[in-house]
Structures are given as C-alpha cells and as structure tokens.
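Justification of resources, computational component.

The compute hours requested in this renewal are based largely on the per-chain cost of generating structure records like the one below. Each record pairs the submitted sequence with a full structure-token output. That output is archived, and it is also reused by downstream analysis tasks.
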Amino acid sequence: MVKQIKPSIYFGGLVGESKFTVLALTGKKSSQYLAPYVTIFNETHKSDNIHLVEALNKMQMLNLTFPVIAKPGIGCRGAGIKIIRDEAEAGIFYIHTRINNRDNYSP
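The structure output for this chain reads:
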C-alpha cells in the first residue's frame, strides 16, 4: 500500500512530480540550501532556439557554467537526468525532453 508521504505534493513525492513545483515549496529560508538552478517552461508560442537562449541567459545571470546537470521537468526517480557539457547538448536535451514528454511535460 502506498501512502501519501508529502501531502503538499500531488503524488506525495513518489513519481511524476514537477521539480519546479517541489522546489517552489521550499520557501525562502530553505532555498538558501539549494544549488542554483534554471527552469525552462515549454511555451509553445516560442521556438526551441528562443527557449535555449533564455536558458543560457538565466544560467549566465546565476554564474552557472557548463557542465551542468539537466533534469526533465517531470520525471521518475532520476529518469532522464543528463550531464550537459555545452550549448549544443543543452539544445538536444531540451528538444528530446519536449518531444518525449509532449503529453505531460510542463516544467
């Protein structure tokens, strides 16, 4: 029997959770203990290239440099996590994640 472990998280943190939503629940006090991160929202009116440029600009604002760890917005126990070494790999990761998760991807 599976019980809801974290009531403020939709599936209790078990699977299929939006990482953005979970991290937003940490609050200002706890967020100081999180590594800096960038979220890319899948806005369909924007091109993939615009999404990538926005992500790279956000990375620059946070002084993040490659390599970085990329995670799909919604996942299951580490599925889809990749080490991204440069801008080209970041673009490929974004497109691959968006296409493979088009029905439920909303990071």
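The first helix runs from residue 19 to 24. Residues 19-100 form one domain.
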